[in-house]
User: Which sequence fits this backbone?
């Protein structure tokens, strides 16, 4: 069995037991989990290998791409600007980005972007690989599109486009990229091990991601890592979400697959392991972080040291809930933060109070101000959530049990 290293408070021994079991059962390649309770580090564990090709071990400071866990950090950067009066989330996007009003989008608000209601989950144009690091250019392509549904009438997970949309608003009102705001105003001052645009030294020691369940990247929605197995869900019916997702996964032209490949990361050699992806800092899925760094982000957030408590309370208020037009399962969002739903499965004690975001392949960032809990889990073996991987959920369940 792969030895697990690090610190675990005896009260939270259940978290260590679950983490070790995942390695023993062959579910992990390399991974880290961190938990803070009432501001105190109670779990900081890691194990396995960071690169299966070389056997490089996962160490205390090994970072990894956390995929859509990024979205909550990007939302926080925008909310910081809102607190400073630089942007009004209720105002039309076109107020700060005039070109965005094209094709009937003049009424889309910043809040619509943060809550996945804008109707722009897909890039209709093919993006050249050389444009992957030119976020404003990709945003301009989205500005020229028409929404796929009437904005504000439904929500559907903007898996990749979320970052270019929210990131461009950040750039328009601040003159800086989302990654620059994160570095200057969040990660830097607080000493957090997270980067939206990894510098060479960080990218060089990042864990290398590996396929787990041998499915195409587009087959596992970023927001469904905590998804219960279909076999354990309600009985299947012809119209059940499980069967709808299975059909969508098998159809390359489905909205689900198109949204998850907008633009397709697999066009780069090595996919998300390509240095271009690690340094580009896409604001929807480009954050590189340690589990300790991401958990500490939520610790600082719920302590009121990133946003004002009133801002966070409003931002975590549910804006949308119910069937997701892209993911097909139920999802729920505040202003950029996931709330408990099928796509953000949360143990019962946190069902009314937890918020955060999952990331493709299994990663998780979670905060719960009511319980004083902040945690993160980042693996490098990516799993197909629809096939029933519940690693993050089981770790969260053990953390809540310790309370």
Assistant:
């Amino acid at each position: 069995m792969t030895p697990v290293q690090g610190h675990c408070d005896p009260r939270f021994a259940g978290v260590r037991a679950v983490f070790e079991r995942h390695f023993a059962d062959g579910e992990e390649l390399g991974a880290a989990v961190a938990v803070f309770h009432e501001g105190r580090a109670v779990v900081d564990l890691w194990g396995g290998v960071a690169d299966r090709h070389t056997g490089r071990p996962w160490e205390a400071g090994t970072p990894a791409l956390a995929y859509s866990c990024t979205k909550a950090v990007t939302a926080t950067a925008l909310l910081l600007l809102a607190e400073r009066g630089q942007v009004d989330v209720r105002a039309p996007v076109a107020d700060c980005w005039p070109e965005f009003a094209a094709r009937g989008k003049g009424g889309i608000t910043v809040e619509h972007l943060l809550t996945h209601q804008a109707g722009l989950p897909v890039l209709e144009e093919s993006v050249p690989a050389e444009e992957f690091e030119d976020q404003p250019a990709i945003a301009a392509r989205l500005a020229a599109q028409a929404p796929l549904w009437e904005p504000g009438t439904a929500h559907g997970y903007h898996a990749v486009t979320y970052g270019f949309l929210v990131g461009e608003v950040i750039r328009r009102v601040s003159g800086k990229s989302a990654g620059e705001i994160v570095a200057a105003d969040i990660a830097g001052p607080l000493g957090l091990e997270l980067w939206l645009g990894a510098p060479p030294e960080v990218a060089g020691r990042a864990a290398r991601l590996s396929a787990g369940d041998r499915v195409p990247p587009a087959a596992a929605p970023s927001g469904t890592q905590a998804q219960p197995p279909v076999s354990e869900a309600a009985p299947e019916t012809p119209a059940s979400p499980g069967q709808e997702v299975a059909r969508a996964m098998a159809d390359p032209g489905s909205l689900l697959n198109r949204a998850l490949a907008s633009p397709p990361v697999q066009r780069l050699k090595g996919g998300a392991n390509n240095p271009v992806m690690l340094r580009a800092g896409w604001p929807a899925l480009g954050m590189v972080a340690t589990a300790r760094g991401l958990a500490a982000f939520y610790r600082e957030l719920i302590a009121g040291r990133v946003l004002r408590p009133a801002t966070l309370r409003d931002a975590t208020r549910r804006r949308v809930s119910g069937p997701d037009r892209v993911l097909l399962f139920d999802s729920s969002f505040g202003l950029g933060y996931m709330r408990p739903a099928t796509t953000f499965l949360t143990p019962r004690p946190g069902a009314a109070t937890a918020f955060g975001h999952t990331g493709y392949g299994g990663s998780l960032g979670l905060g719960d101000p009511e319980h004083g809990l902040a945690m993160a889990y980042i693996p490098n073996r990516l799993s197909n959530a629809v096939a029933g991987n519940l690693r993050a959920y089981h770790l969260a369940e053990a953390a809540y049990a310790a309370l």
